[in-house]
Amino acid sequence: MPEPALCPAPPRPELLRLLRARLSELWPALRVVAEDVLAAETSIDWVAVDPDGRAVAVLVDDAGRDLDAIARAMAHRAWLEARLGSWVQLAPQSGLRPEVGVRALVLCPGFRAEAIAAAAAAPPGALSLAVYRCLRDGAGVHVLVEPLAAEASAAPSKPERRAVAEPFRTRLSDFDLGLTAEEQAEFERLAAPVGGRR
Predict the structure, then answer these.
(1) Residue 107 and residue 153 in contact, taking contact as beta carbons nearer than 8 Å
(2) If you placed Cys at 73, which of 23, 59, 125, 147 could pair as Cys (CB 3.0 to 4.6 Å)?
(3) Into how many domains does the chain fold?
(4) C-alpha closest to that of 104 among 64, 59, 149
């Protein structure tokens, strides 16, 4: 039997089927109540309910679309929150409790630093991120899902100050800059500590 290896995601309908099965394994108390719900302009992949009655708008997207997915998930969250009262009237057995609000869950193959920073700007508890990866073995394609820990998806509110300023580094060599020996000597003289000069 071949060893499992990372592979490209299958066509979207198959990917969603695989992810929905994993969703219930990772978050057993999360119950999907609707799928492919058209929001203001784009579809929410799944609307789920957590044990507290909180609605969860779940969005799945592709590699490189993580930042866009976070923006759409927050738009989906706002759209759904504005309509929860109507949803409860239409489906009182859903277990939705409008007073506890809505959370968004975004699943992507990865999240870049900029996307994680955007997610950290969301109100506490409003957004969760999870990474999915597809594996192929002799039995077919499988999907692995790993929720990002809160500390991994949160960014510090203020940048840390360094006690000692580090010199600016370009990672360019003298050869890259085309410096002559005289020019290099001049740069070294200017970079020497002040106490070393006369």
Answers:
(1) no
(2) 59
(3) 1
(4) 59
Q: Which residues pair with 134 in a beta bridge?
A: 143
In angstroms, the CA 131 to CA 72 distance is 17
- Evaluate whether residue 162 is within a structural domain: no
Say if pTM beats, i.e. exceeds, 0.85: no
Flag whether 177 is in a domain: no
Give the residue numbers spanning the domain of 138.
5-153
Residue from 11, 19, 43, 42 nearest 146 by CA: 19
Contact 70, 118 (CB under 8 A): yes
The answer to whether 37 touches 150, Cβ cutoff 8 Å, is: no
> What pLDDT, in 10s, does the model give residues 36-80?
999 999 999 999 999 999 999 999 999 999 999 999 999 999 999
Residue 34 has pLDDT above 50, yes or no: yes
Q: What is the pLDDT of residues 117-148, one digit of tens each?
A: 999 999 999 999 999 999 998 888 999 999 98
